[in-house]
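Dear colleague,

Thank you for sharing your sequence with our group. We've completed the structure prediction you requested, and as agreed, I am returning the results in plain text so they can be pasted directly into your records. Please verify that the sequence below matches your submission; if there's any discrepancy, let me know and we will rerun it promptly.
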Amino acid sequence: MSAAFLSALLFAAAPPADAPLADAVETRDAAAIDRLLDREEPGVNLAQPDGMTALHWAVRRGEDSIVARLINAGADATAETHYGVTPLALACELGDAGIVRRLLDAGADANARFPDGSTPLLSAARTGRPAALKALLEAGSKPNAADPRGQTALMWAAAAGHATAIDVLVAADANVNATLPSGFTPFLFAVREGEVAAARRLLAAGVDVNAPAEVRKGARNGLRNGTPPLALAVENGHFELAAALLNAGAAPDDLRSGFAALHAISWVRKPMRGDGDPAPTGSGSLTSLEFVRVLIDAGADVNLRLKGSPPGHPGLNKKGATAFLLACESCDVPLMTALLDAGADETLTNADGTTALLAAAGVGALGSGDEPAATEAEAVEAVRWLLDRGAKIDLVDDRGETAMHGAAYKNRPDVVRLLAEHGADPAVWNVENRSGWTPLEIASGQRRGNFRPSPETIAAIQAVLARPFTVRSD
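Please find the predicted structure tokens below.
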């Protein structure tokens, strides 16, 4: 029999540690607590098998009077369980300022490091009780101490939306501009989580509402370098917070993230399907369409054009695209309508000369696993809406793409039939684009990153080509 096995066997057979006072406090047995504490040797620091003492349990239960009696009886305020948990760690999670003060007065370390590398102040900041934070700071807790990932108490309070805790930490000279390698600051944490009150407190403390994310080279899971707070709020669906940022002076047409807030509305409302990210949960009572009006009223240029394609947004070439063209790409008729009502120019194209109709039909190849934001029914609605407004059906962009090429890219047989019914001329669209593909060849699998044929789209195009072409009189 090995020594290790014997040791394990003996340990398993050993009776649990005898800690009657800890057991009594755990079960809230008041009579047993009184009886044991009245003894000359109450065994106040005896621990259960996992290291929990009576004081641990009294703190966890929030029993301030019992905490006081145990400390008076000699309980060790620095005792650790077998997992390194101290009474102060439990008190900070609870946020009970009275118990925190008692433990600090009894010798608990205000700057101790817990097993996860955090400090009492960091732990209390997550709970957000200002009185507990004040007690720790008065006992010497360092306001800018960080956990192993570099996160500070102010970052935790901001992310959790604890506005009054932010006030306490700022008053103690917590660094409002502390920055992680990922680019996150306390303010950007508040913005990402949609915490309006927390964001306002930090702005009042002097944070620049337009300060972009500064991401260190090689940082993982970070923001896009240069992302301004407004863009972060909009991409996370926090439109009420975004409106507050605009009121605080956020620049509505800031393009440092590669797009302005108005452009982002299209993919926030209708993100790419398949391997794309889901729509954000968002927050607040302001809808995305209401926020469009807020942006315009704040001075956003409804016809602002992108300088390039933002990372992570395949499909249509975004260079030169306006918010309206992006809304057409996602076949979002309510957004298209809202933008037109706000003065959008529906004739503006991207750098390839792609029109609103071509974008709605589907021009812009996607990679394998990617699916367009719009369903085919939504695409039919958007294409019909544009045609009813007089969109020219036989235009060809600079890459040789037509609306019919777009329908083939996105596997939309109903759009193929709709275009044919509205007089799309085969002499115009049944030609090779710059890549050398006709709509039928695209439907058969000739496209970048995705070689799967679409039998339904192939059949629809072949049926259109097989019937006589008639020019519509309307």
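Summary note from our side: The CA atoms of residues 152 and 172 lie 13 Å apart.

Kind regards,
the structure core
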